C-alpha cells in the first residue's frame, strides 16, 4: 500500500501527535466545506502578496496526486484561487490545495469535489506579475514545508509530515489508534481519563 | 429586464472583476448561511458603536427591493440586528442586510429566508441613542458605498457597483463569463491556464 | 420544573437581554455545529496555556448535568479537548463544554452529540503539567463566571446567568417573549418597529 | 506609612509576582510616556463605546489620591480623555488614569505631569450619552478591578491589588526584593540562575 | 496667511472636532518620532501590496509643500519608504509622508527632519512592479482622502480636512480654542467639567 | 576583522536587501529602547507558552558574544525575561536577546545596557516547567533561524543571516552602501529616484 493511501486512514490530529506534536499548519487554514479531506505530497509555492501567477504554474508543473501548498507573503485578503484553476488542477490529477490565504468560487469548487483548504473566502482579484518561488521550502505558521513532504488535511486542520518520517508517522499513528480504542472501551465503562492514565494517584479522584 | 435581475445572474467575484477589481467589501462580511444571496440598491446607514436605532429607521424608510448597507463605527461585537427586525424588513419588501458588524437570532432569520451578510453572530445587546447618518456615503473596507449603488452578495463575499457603472458591469460580466466558458472547455481538454493565457511562452511549460 | 429545563426554552440572546444585557461570553465562542445547544450549571476551569490536565480532571469531578466552562490563559491555538474526552464526559452525564480556546476531532464529537462551544478547531497537541484552578471564578471576556452559575449556549453565542438571578432571568425572559410575540403580530401587519416603539414621534416616520 | 506610599516603592511586576502572579492588566495598557508611574486606589468606570460622560463624572466624584480605572466596552479607537480632563482631574488631586482605550492631547498631558496609562493615542472624538457604571466592579483583561482596589503602574504595565491583600502584597514584595538582591550578588559573581535556583541538578550545567 | 500656516497652529484633534468629528485617519498611523508634525495638501497614492514604485513617482510629481498620503492595499508589513526617498522628497520640498503601512531607516529620516507618519517600522524590502493609482481618492480607515485635501498630523494622530472646508475648519478651531481656554480657567479654579457644561443638573454633583 | 564586527557596520535593512530581501524577523520585534543595537550568532530557544526555564538555561549554555533568539509558541503575553536574567546574561558576555514574546523590567535592562528586542513589555509572570528545545532551528515569522546564524538588530527591526552566507552578506552590503551613497549625491542635486533609476523613461517624468 502506498504512503498516501496509508496516511489517508488517519486524522490530521492523530498524525500530528504520532510525530510528537509535529507539523500543525496554522489553524485558520480549514477546508471550504467541512467534509473535504486532502492527502498527498506537497508541491510548494510562495507568492507575492495578491499575485497568483505562481499558482497557475504550480498546478501545471506538479505531478498527479500532489497537493499545492502555498504561502502568500502573509497577505490573506485576496481570492488567489477559483473555479477555473480548480478545474484545471483536477483535470490534471492534482489532489488539492492548501493555501495560507483566501480563495473564491466556493460553490463551484465544492460542486466539482476538489479539496481546498484556505484562510477563508475572498472575492478580491489578483495581479499577474509572477515573482516568488516554486517547489522550494516554505514556512507555514510554526513549521517548514519542504517539497515532497506529505500533507494531510481534514475538518480539524492540516498537518505536514516530513518525507523521511512518513513510515514512522504511519506506525505511530496505528499504535496511537489502538491505544485510543483501548481507552475508549474503558471510558464507555465509566472510567475517567485521570483513572485510565493513572493521574488519579497524583491528583486524587 | 431590470438591473437587479440582470446583476443577480452573476457572482460577486465576477462583478468585481468586470469593473476592474472594484468594490470588494471586507471579506469578513459573509452570509449567515452559505446559500444566501442578496442583490439590490443600497440604503446606507452609519451607526454609533453598539447602537441600532438607525437600523430600525433604515428598514422603515428604505424602498422595497433595497438592501440595507450598514457601517457600525468599527465596533463589531454587538447584535445589531435580529429576528424581529428581519420580519419587519421582510414584510416591507427589503431585499436584505449587509452589515460591517454582527447580528443575532440566526436560526429564525434563516428560517424566514431573509438574507443577512455580517461579520458574524453576537448576542450582545444594543443601545437606543440613535446618532449617526442615514442614506449618506459610507466607507466599507477599501470602498465607498453611495446610496443607490448596487450591492451583490453571495457565499464568496459582497461587491458594490456604482449606480453609474451598472450597465458596464453587466456587459463586462457577460463577456467575462463567455470567456471563462471558453477557458473551461480547454481546461477540460487538459490544457493548463498558462498555456491558454500564453504564459507558457514566458515561463516555459 | 427545574431551572435547567426552564432556561433551555430561551435563546442565549433573550436571557442576555432579560438580565439587562448581562453575561455575553466572547462572541468568538460558538458551537462546533450550528445545531448544538447547551444548558447547565458551570464547573469552571482555568488552564495554563496549551495544557489540558485540568480539563481531564474537570469532567471527572463535575456533577452530571454540569457544563465545563474553561478559560485557557488567552492561548487559543491548541486542541484542548477531543473525542476521547467528549466520550468520557458524555458517559458521566456532563452536559457540554464551553471553552475560550480550540478543540479537535469535531466529526467524532458531533457524531456522539456532545455539545462543544469553542473558538474553533485546532489539531495542535497539549501538554500535561496541570497548573491552574478548578471550580474557582474565571473571567470570560467581559464577565466573571462563578462555579454554579448557569450557562446557556446556542448558535448565536453563550450567556452566563448568576445562580442568584436565575429565577429573575426566567421570569423576565418569559415576559420578553410575550412582548416580542405582540411586536411580531404588528410587524406582520406592516407596522415598523419605530411605529411600534413610538420612535416615529421622535424621528418622524 | 500609608499603603500608597509603601506600594509606590515596588514595580508593577514585583507586586504581580508577590501575590502569586495576580492582577496583571492587559499589557497593551501602557503609560503615554515611559517615565510615568501611578499608584492609588481605584475609582472604577465602565463606559459605552466611544462615550466619555462617565469619565467627566468620575474625576468629579473620586477622592483625591484615587486613580480612575476605566473599561470602554472593548472599543479602543476613541480619544476618551484629553488635556482639559487631565487639568480638571489633576486640580482635584486625582492621582492618574488607567484606561482600556485611547486618549489624546499627549503632549499637554505629559507637560502637566498627570499620569495616563492607555491603549494608545487617538484623536477620534467621543459622544455624550452617559450610559454605563460608576464605581462598580469592572473586568480588565483577565482580572476584576473592584472599587478601592490598589492599582500600580509603571513602564512595564499595570497591576491591580485587592484592597484586602495590600499588606500581604507589601510584605511579599519586600521579601521578593531581598531575595532578588541576593540573586543579583551571585549573578555578578558569575553564577547563572540555573545554578542559583539549583536547576543545574535537573538539567546539567 | 495661507491655509497651511493657519492649520499648523492647531492640533489634529482640535481640527477633527472643529469639523464635527471628521477625518480621523487610522490611529495606528503615528509619527516615527513623537515630536514630528506635518501639514499640507495631499498628493494621494494607492500602491500594490509590498510595491513602492508609485511612492518614488509620487514625490517626483507632487508640488513643494504637499504631503504624500499613501494607502498600501491593507498590507502593512513592508518598508515602503526609507532614507533615500526621504532625502529625495525633502530636497524637492515635499512636506512629509503619511502612509498606511510601514517604513524603515527611522534614525536617518529623523536626523534629516523629514516628517513621516506610518503604521510602524519594518525592514522587509519592496518590489518594483508599479501598479496602482496616483492622485486619485484613497480610503484611509473611515474616510476618503481626495487629492488636494489638507492633512495635519501630530503625536496624537492625523486628520484630513476637505479642501472645501478648510476655512470652516480654521474658524471653528479658533472658536474651539477660545472656548477651551475659558474652560481651562474654570478648571484651574476647581470647577469640574460636569459643572462647567451644566451636566451636574442632570447627574447631580 | 571578525564577522560580527563587520556586520555591525550595516543596518538590518541593508543586510536584508543585500541577501535578496532575506531574513526579516517579525516587525513587531523591536528594541525596548530605539537606540539599542545587537549583533552576534544565534543561540536558539523554543519555549512552551508562558514558560521561561529554557531561557535561563540558554544564557548559561551559550557562548560569550552569542545572541539568544527565542520563539515562545506564539504566546506573547508574558514577561519571559527581566532584569535578573539580563544581569546574568550580560555578566557571562551574552550579546543580547531577540524574543518573539514580551519582557519586563525595561528600565533596569536599559540602564545596564543589555540589548533586548521583543514584542513589547508585559508584567505577567511565567512558569517553570521547562519543555521545549535548545539550539535547534526555530521559525521566526517567515524565516528559519538556525543555531549559529547571525542576527543583526536595530531600531528598524532584526535580520537573520545564514552562517554560510555571511561573507556574501558583508560584500553585498558594502556594494549596496556605495551605490546608495552615489544615489544620495544625485538626490542632493535635485534628481529624483525615478530619474536616477531610469524609470522616468517608462513612466514619464
Instruction: Write down the overall mean pLDDT of chain A.
Output: 97
Q: How many strand segments of chain A?
A: 12
Distance between the termini of chain A: 45 Å
Helical element count of chain A? Answer: 8
Biggest interface and residues each: D-E, 27 and 33 residues
Structural class of chain A: alpha/beta
Low-confidence stretches of chain A: none
Helix content of chain A: 25-40%
What coarse outline of chain A follows from CA principal-axis ratios? elongated
Give the assembly state of these chains.
Answer: homohexamer
Radius of gyration of chain A: 19 Å
What's the structural blueprint in terms of helices and strands?
The structure is a homohexamer of 205-residue chains.
Chain A lengths: L2 H6 L3 H7 L11 E2 L6 E10 L5 H9 L5 E5 L11 H9 L4 E5 L1 E2 L2 H7 L3 E3 L1 E2 L10 E3 L3 E3 L2 E3 L4 E5 L2 E5 L4 H23 L4 H4 L3 H4 L2
Parallel strand pairs in A: 2-3, 3-4, 4-6, 5-7
Antiparallel strand pairs in A: 1-6, 2-8, 2-11, 9-10, 11-12
Helix pairs in contact in A: 2-6
